[in-house]
Amino acid sequence: MKADIQEVCVCGLEERVDIWRCPHFRYFKGKQEFTSVGCVIKTLLPPAYDGVDPAVLEHARIRGERVDQYFSEYLRSGTVTLNAGEWQEVLSYLERLINWWDKQGVQASKVQEIVYSKSDGIAGTLDLRIKDPFAIWDVKCVSSLQPSYKLQLGAYLSMSRNGSGIPNAGVIQVKKNDVRLVDYLASRCAEQWERALGWYKTLKELK
Prior knowledge:
Order of helices and strands: EEEHHHEEEHEEH
Number of domains: 1
Radius of gyration: 18 Å
CATH topology: Lambda Exonuclease, Chain A
Shape: globular
Structural class: alpha+beta
Number of strands: 8
């Protein structure tokens, strides 16, 4: 049986002035590497997927990433360039999402924006910063929402410029049959993230 060989990431050897995310989803700025928001959340709230086929989980992850990439392209340019042989379910999710978005009459001021805290050494990529209503939204292609989404939104709010002045936060939930916006209280999300971050730091100190 052939052993799995993980790809070695040496992206950090490339020093850049601005913060950036490499293809392996690691964040760097100059000589500093940042821990991702996702890594912090998984440490505190390990996902419970007992009994779920790993292949199904991986398929769902790839589907979500592709929908997110296409949607981001649509928001930036107004068009989408599809990869040859793209999954039909990706196209279906994307079509529902774009149709929903076009009916909302809102505009994204930032798409796939990297936010970070130099002092905490943590970074993440928020999907959408909305002009009116002033908000941060994240896109999730899932059948059910997870408690960890509140922490994710809270992290983005806490690390954003003027984050304390953003009154709205939400998740655009894309399901098989519909799309809906689920609103969260931004101040509460930020508060929960700060508490979670404190516990994460404590865990690191105890090791």
